[in-house]
């Protein structure tokens, strides 16, 4: 698991090399993706399970913000029972690491029978979903041996971001100049992640020792960061066998706050893109919530921008990530949470590569 966490910069670089030619999309690899996007006259429905569904939740906001296309994210196991009456103009995307996940494969087959244009984001190029979907969009994560998804998850996030940029371009919702700036920003992402990994490992390993006695965690995030909070909670459950739940930050006071105490730490994603006014507004609300929680006696582990003194003054412990564009922050934020799950597990003697009761691919619902 740790090795695969460290392979993420190379995965990002390989993905960009495959689908981009300098500051342009490669026509040969992206023409079918563009064709699928053009079919989206109504909405995009994303069907996925587990970590893949969390990637879909990030994609929902990226697509809607960049291109204006409405997105509905479904549990694959629930999509199979959904009425088609409201989905007449939808295109359907499935997301799966293995490309063999039983309920997601069933969702793909239902979508095809209903006549929807289908696209599969998978990590195994010769999988069932890759061959059965109208369009396959493979990640470049390579084989993932550990059961907890790490590099395959960030691979999905990156593919989804590229697809949302293509959608924005097809809808003429973005200017060529804006697109060039976004692609230039992507080009430095592998080195940005690579340079932060050693410090993330050192700081997270130390911080994990401070939570040895904790058995319950609440993960909080707003906007795209809510999906990262859910993914962080899932990693902790499956890797360290600890109870953890992910919530939108604004929902904490609507019930879950009853659980907050020093014994139930909060993991709060409090990063900000200061060039994005929506992000700044969410950040200010996060600071307000942190102040309230500290007055309540909460133990807060925060993910914050490097050198953010406001968050550092309110949090019990802080993991810093370098500032970047709002849509790219999830790629940075999730890696320290993967490391947190890893170190919480190994310090308790757990084999993180083979967690109990779990398999790499869920082949039967």
Q: Give the full name of the CATH homologous superfamily of the largest domain.
A: Glucose-6-phosphate isomerase like protein, domain 1
DSSP strand tally: 12
Strand order of the largest sheet: 4-3-5-6-7
- The string of secondary-structure elements, in order, is HHEEHEHEHEHEHEHHHEHEEHEHEH
CATH fold descriptor of the largest domain: Rossmann fold
Q: Radius of gyration, rounded?
A: 20 Å
Biggest pleated-sheet summary: 5 strands, parallel
If you average the pLDDT, what whole number results?
95
The share of residues in helices is 40-55%
Give the name of the CATH architecture of the largest domain.
3-Layer(aba) Sandwich
Described by the principal axes of the CA atoms, the overall outline is globular
Number of domains: 2
What is the name of the CATH class of the largest domain? Alpha Beta
Q: How large a portion of the residues is in β-strands, by DSSP E?
A: 15-25%
Q: Could you list the spans in which at least 5 consecutive residues all have pLDDT below 50?
A: none
- Give the N-terminus to C-terminus distance in angstroms: 25 Å
Classification by helices and strands: alpha/beta
Write the layout of secondary structure elements.
Elements: H1 2-6, H2 8-19, E1 20-21, E2 24-25, H3 27-38, E3 43-48, H4 50-67, E4 70-75, H5 76-79, E5 91-96, H6 102-113, E6 118-122, H7 128-132, E7 135-136, H8 151-170, H9 176-187, H10 189-209, E8 216-221, H11 224-240, E9 243-248, E10 266-269, H12 277-295, E11 300-305, H13 309-314, E12 317-321, H14 329-346
């Amino acid at each position: 698991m740790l090795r695969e966490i460290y392979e993420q910069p190379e995965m990002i670089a390989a993905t960009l090399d495959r689908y981009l030619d300098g500051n342009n999309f490669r026509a040969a690899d992206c023409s079918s993706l563009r064709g699928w996007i053009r079919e989206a006259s109504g909405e995009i429905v994303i069907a996925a399970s587990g970590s893949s569904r969390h990637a879909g939740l990030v994609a929902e906001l990226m697509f809607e913000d960049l291109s204006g296309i409405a997105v509905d994210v479904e549990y694959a196991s629930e999509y199979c029972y959904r009425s088609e009456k409201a989905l007449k103009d939808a295109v359907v995307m499935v997301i799966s690491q293995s490309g063999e996940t039983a309920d997601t494969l069933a969702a793909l087959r239902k979508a095809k029978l209903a006549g929807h244009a289908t696209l599969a984001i998978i990590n195994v190029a010769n999988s069932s979903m890759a061959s059965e979907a109208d369009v396959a969009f493979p990640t470049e994560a390579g084989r993932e041996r550990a059961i907890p998804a790490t590099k395959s998850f960030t691979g999905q996030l990156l593919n989804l971001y590229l697809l949302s940029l293509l959608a924005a371009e097809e809808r003429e919702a973005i200017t060529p100049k804006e697109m060039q700036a976004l692609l230039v920003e992507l080009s430095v992402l592998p080195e940005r992640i690579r340079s932060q990994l050693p410090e993330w490992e050192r700081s997270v390993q130390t911080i994990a020792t401070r939570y040895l006695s904790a058995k319950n965690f609440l993960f909080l995030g707003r906007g795209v960061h809510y999906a990262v909070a859910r993914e962080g909670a899932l990693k902790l459950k499956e890797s360290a066998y600890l109870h953890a739940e992910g919530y939108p930050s604004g929902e904490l006071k609507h019930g879950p706050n009853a659980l907050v105490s020093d014994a139930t730490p909060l993991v709060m994603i409090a990063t900000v893109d200061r060039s994005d006014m929506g992000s700044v507004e969410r950040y200010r609300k996060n600071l307000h919530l942190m102040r309230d929680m500290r007055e309540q006696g909460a133990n807060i582990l925060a993910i914050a921008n490097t050198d953010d003194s406001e968050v550092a003054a309110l949090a019990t412990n802080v993991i810093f990530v370098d500032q970047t564009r709002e849509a790219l922050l999830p790629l940075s934020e999730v890696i320290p949470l993967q490391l947190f799950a890893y170190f919480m597990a190994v310090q308790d003697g757990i084999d993180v590569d083979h967690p109990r009761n779990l398999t790499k691919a869920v082949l039967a619902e």
